[in-house]
Structure formats: C-alpha cells, structure tokens
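Quiz preparation item.
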C-alpha cells in the first residue's frame, strides 16, 4: 500500500473511531440498541448477493469520510480538477475547464463539455460533475475489504468518473446501484475495496444523458440593453394558404399617431392593427423560447427527417434591425408519453432538436383573428381635419376641424381648443367629439381572409376623413353582407365584417347630429 493510501486509510479510521465513540455515547444514553438496521436477516446458507439483503449502518456511522480528493493528507486542499470524464449507460461526457478560478473576483472555476463549443451547454449542470465529486464525502460506510462488488452494482457501475487534477494526479470513482433506502448511491474509489453510500443529490447527475447538460433555451434572450427591434416576423404554415406577416409600425413611436398599444401591425393577409396583449408573444416569443425536453444533440439529417423538420410544418422567420435573422422550424403536434401535446423545434442550421410544449408553440395555431385588434378606426380624434359621412337613407354631414392655437400640444388639448364646422356652419366641438367617439367604437368582428369582391351598388354608409398626422385619407364603406352582418371596405379593399346593427345605428346618429338628442352608443 502506498504512503498516500495509508494516509487516506488512517484518516478514514480516525473518522470511524470518532463516529463509533459518538455512537456509543448515544447508545449509552438510550440504554442500548442496535448500532445499525438490518433490513433483511439472511439464512445461514443464503449466498444471495442481492442488495436488498444488505445491512446498513445508522445515518451517522461512517459519515463524513472523504472518498475523492487530489490529496488525502489531513487538512489538504481539495485541489483543482483540470479535466474530467464521465462514462455511463448513456455514453461518455468529456469535461474541460472553461474559466479558471479568480481569487480576486471570488469566483470558482467553470466547466463545459468538450466538443460542443457551438452548442449552448448548461455550464451550471456540467459544473456539478466536477464540484459534486471533488471532495465527495460518504453518508455511511457500508463494507470494508469488500470482495463482492456485484451486490452493490459496483462490478458494472452505473457511472465511472475520472478526474485529472492540475497537480497531475488522477482519481477515479464508481457509482453503483441506488441504496434500497433511497437516500444515496453505493460508491467506491478506484483502488479501494471500501464501499460507501453518498447522497443521491450529489451523485444523480453522473447517470444522466448528454441532453440533460444542454441548455433548454432554443434562442437566448438578449440583455435588455442589447435587445434588437424586431422589424418583421413571417409565419409560413402548411394548414393556411397565406403567410401571416407582422411588421414594426414606426407610427407607434408617437403617442399621438393613433393605432393600438402594439408596436407592430399585421400586413398580411390583412393590413390591420394588432392587439398588443394578444400579439406580443407571437412577435417576440422566439427570444427566450424554452423547451420542455431535447430530442437530439448534434443532430444528423436522419434526426431532422425523423422529427419532421426537413420539410417543416411551420417556419417562423424573424428579421431584426441589427441585420440578424432567425428562422425557427416547427413540426406538427404530437402527443408525448404523458399524452401532452408537443412539437419538435430547431433553429435553421442548428444542431439541437428540441421538444416544445403546446403553450410555447403558439406559431403553430395562431390565426389572424386571434391577434388582430378589433379597432377599425384608430386615428386620434384631434388629428382629423375633415370628416364626411354619407348614408343611403339621405343623411349626411361634412365636418371641418381646426385648432384655435396651432402651437398647442395635443396632449394639453381638449374640445375647447378646436373650432368645428358642419356643412359650413359652426358646430359644438364637444358634440362632434362624442360623435367621433361613437365612430371609433365600431369593432371589427372578423377579418376578411378569403377573396371577396367589393359589392356593386351604393353602400349603406360611407365615412371618410383625412388624418393630419400621417397626411393620409381613409374611406370606410359599409355594405350589407347578410341579415346580421356588414362588410367593411377600407380604401377600396374588403377588410372586415361587423354587426349590421352598428351601421343602422350610425345612420340613426347622423340624423341626431342637429337635434341635440343623445347619440345611441349601443347596438345589437
């Protein structure tokens, strides 16, 4: 036996003696008792090596013995692991130091997987393969001078771990079966015939597969000060015959430009506003997207085809203002072993295939109506400089709106700051504001996604105005589509459907403009 092994053995014996003295003291206080629990009492001729027939010391007996270290000299430092290798039933992991410890900064060494430099490795998880084993201590001493490692699963261990220290020393240890108590694994150091248990929390990661050490994030979330603006997001999907295109709306930078709370607009299949709360995860959800599991690492063409991603069901392209583009490929949904809906996902030209839960794969099911704002007319009231209304029953009105002080900020303005004329005559500016409020209360109940022609003949009503902010003219024509529904044509393009009762209420309110009657603000 080498000097180091003798020293290690002496250290173990000292700790065992201390443990036995403490145990004796406890037993004396209790008036005697068993020093350990025998889970099964074998017959005299029983030669079974089943781990269920083993005797286990109490939790304190043989605890705290250092099993793995660079040096076993009493009081010696643990030493720094330079590289490590972990072999288990799932394969082999080679670990290398990524950054050395920095005493001045107070940081420990960090580790990563060798051969995976172009894949996001979970360095915190990889670090446990070094930090949990370096200085590993026993939770109990099971058997000294063991000659039958098979009964502990140590003849064919679940994991074989080797450390190469900066000192040049090499240490190996083996992880066997899980103890029947469930609180630990059997473990022994290479060259030592003593079997211990060590805590499950320290040893469980040594039997894990490669995929558990890869980051579950599909696309990293940039730091807040590095977050790019998403200029365009395109969703191409096999189950729809159009692309859903969402683009950055520059007008959203100005609080008085109208629109909605969303910074983006839909430009295909319909040019319309987005509901900010419903569209946010669709627009920016690719950043920080997290998977529930990993299907393949360093995937091959066969893996990609097997996951249905060589011809993906859905392709999401995100273009950012920093010049970068990201393409996410998604398969159709499938049910996993727990019956939960999932899909395969990978970044185009990536090397990892992930599994996403249904809730994180919103691009597979989103439809334009799901994220479109119901607001049809979104111009800010005092941006409008002229507004004309014509109805098929003869009602009409032509408004001209002028600010009394052109230098006054809109945010500080109200009805009293504007002069309104209707058909060339002065009109109460507050009554005009209330009429405009009714106009913009119309909600688009559906988007026009199919090809629809503009109906022939006169519309039920027509509203047109000029927005002084963007200097554009907008014309909304309301045509009868069915008994209950009206088609809305915006600037000559069929875009929305709404309740026909809104249009009849509009026609009624036009008649009320000069009567002083309250406008009707509900319809159905």
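Solution:
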């Amino acid at each position: 036996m080498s000097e180091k092994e003798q020293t290690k053995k002496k250290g173990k014996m000292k700790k065992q003696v201390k443990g036995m003295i403490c145990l004796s003291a406890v037993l004396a206080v209790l008036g005697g008792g068993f020093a350990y629990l025998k889970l099964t009492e074998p017959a005299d001729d029983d030669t079974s090596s089943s781990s269920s027939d083993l005797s286990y010391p109490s939790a304190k007996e043989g605890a705290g013995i250092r099993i793995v270290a660079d040096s076993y000299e009493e009081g010696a430092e643990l030493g720094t692991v330079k590289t490590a290798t972990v072999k288990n039933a799932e394969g082999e992991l080679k670990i290398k130091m990524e950054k050395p410890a920095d005493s001045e900064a107070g940081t420990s060494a960090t580790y990563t997987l060798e051969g995976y430099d172009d894949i996001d490795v979970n360095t915190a998880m990889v670090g446990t393969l070094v930090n949990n084993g370096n200085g590993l201590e026993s939770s109990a001493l099971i058997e000294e001078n063991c000659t039958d490692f098979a009964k502990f699963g140590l003849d064919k261990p679940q994991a074989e771990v080797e450390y190469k220290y900066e000192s040049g020393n090499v240490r190996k240890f083996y992880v066997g079966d899980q103890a029947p108590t469930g609180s630990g694994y059997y473990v022994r150091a290479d060259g030592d015939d003593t079997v211990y248990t060590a805590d499950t929390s320290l040893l469980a990661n040594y039997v894990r597969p490669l995929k558990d050490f890869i980051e579950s994030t599909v696309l990293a979330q940039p730091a807040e000060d590095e977050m790019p603006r998403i200029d365009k997001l395109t969703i191409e999907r096999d189950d729809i015959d159009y692309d859903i295109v969402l683009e950055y709306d520059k007008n959203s930078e100005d609080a008085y430009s109208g629109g909605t709370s969303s910074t983006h607009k839909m430009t295909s299949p319909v040019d319309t506003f987005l509901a900010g709360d419903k569209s946010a995860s669709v627009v920016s959800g690719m950043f920080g997207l997290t998977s529930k599991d990993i299907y393949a690492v360093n995937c091959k063409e066969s893996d990609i085809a097997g996951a249905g991603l060589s011809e993906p069901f859905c392709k999401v392209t995100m273009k950012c203002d920093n010049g970068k583009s990201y393409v996410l490929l998604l398969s159709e949904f499938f049910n996993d072993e727990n019956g939960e809906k999932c899909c395969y996902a990978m970044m185009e030209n990536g090397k990892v295939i992930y599994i996403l839960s249904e809730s994180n794969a919103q691009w597979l099911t989103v439809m334009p109506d799901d994220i479109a704002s119901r607001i049809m007319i979104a111009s800010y009231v005092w941006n409008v400089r002229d507004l004309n209304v014509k109805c098929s029953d003869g009602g009409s009105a032509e408004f001209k709106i002028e600010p009394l002080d052109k230098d006054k900020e809109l945010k500080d303005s109200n009805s009293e700051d504007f002069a309104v004329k209707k058909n060339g005559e002065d009109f109460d500016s507050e009554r005009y504001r209330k009429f405009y409020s009714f106009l913009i209360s119309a909600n688009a109940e559906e988007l026009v996604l199919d090809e629809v022609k503009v109906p022939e003949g006169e519309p039920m009503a027509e509203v047109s105005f000029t927005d002084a902010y963007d200097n554009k003219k907008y014309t909304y024509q309301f045509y009868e589509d069915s008994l209950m529904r009206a088609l809305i044509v915006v600037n000559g393009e069929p875009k929305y459907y709404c309740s026909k009762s809104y249009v009849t209420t509009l026609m009624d309110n036009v008649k009320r403009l000069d009567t002083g009657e309250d406008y009707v603000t509900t319809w159905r």
